[in-house]
């Protein structure tokens, strides 16, 4: 059982619909801005299904969510007030990556008119290396990256969740800001591999530590990577955006997605200067802020154009 909220326009429809995955929401799903989003979608003519992942609410990522989001989309497009030919998925942050992966599943991929991600990651392998080493690629140069606390927390929670609970708690306590270091002998072989990844600052050592994770964990990292699914995304419209200075997910992740999809029809990619979806936090001068809002509007406009059309999907 999973939880979601449906927001509908006042008329009978059928309406285009959108499954929205907001990813890990640090302020909680009860935050007053959440219904503002749902109501805004309804005013724009969409039925919005806001999907709340039980694992993401626990600050964890799990491959099972991919299928769950696809199941939510499948349920939604079978409602009598929905026009499946104009419906799709949208996600923000890690939710954007999961929306992309869900749109590629066999259950729904021929019935998705659009998929959109704001600041998604492309691969858990590259993303994990960047988090573990507190560094990111800027073009061909690797630079220091001040990892957002939320990103670090989700990384730690997700990796340790695949260990026995007692050992998971031990490692979480040790890597906390005021934690005491462990000695490897206190941990199992799997626990030692996870702990090494969480305590290595060097990118090369982080890469080696990733390869030393247990096979089951490596399989989960691959299953959590949009690059694994990208060629099965059949949606005729693919829109994604990313903030250049994003501290939660590096912009290089979206650039890798863009490179993988280069030459594909219906592909739209935009880089912006908000601060991880927050236009206020970046403190841009007024006219630059207006420019960024215009970039955002022109980036997402194809989704609304698609929703107004009658192009058949599947």
Q: What's the quick description here?
A:
This protein has 314 residues and is α/β, with parallel strands linked by helices. Helices cover 42% and strands 15% of the residues.
> What's the CATH first level of the largest domain?
Alpha Beta
Task: Note the gap between the termini.
Answer: 28 Å
The largest sheet, given as strand count, sense and whether it forms a barrel, is: 7 strands, mixed
Shape: globular
Average pLDDT for all residues? 88
Number of helices: 12
Which H/E pattern describes the elements?
Answer: EEHEHEHEHEEHHHHHHEHEH
Structural class: alpha/beta
Unreliable stretches (pLDDT < 50, length at least 5) are: 310-314
CATH architecture of the largest domain: 3-Layer(aba) Sandwich
Which fold name is given in CATH as the topology of the largest domain?
A: Rossmann fold
Q: What's the count of strands?
A: 9
Helix content: 40-55%
Q: Which strands sit side by side, in order, in the main sheet? A: 1-3-2-4-5-8-9
CATH superfamily of the largest domain: Alpha/Beta hydrolase fold, catalytic domain
Structurally, the number of domains stands at: 2
> Strand percentage, roughly?
5-15%
Radius of gyration: 20 Å
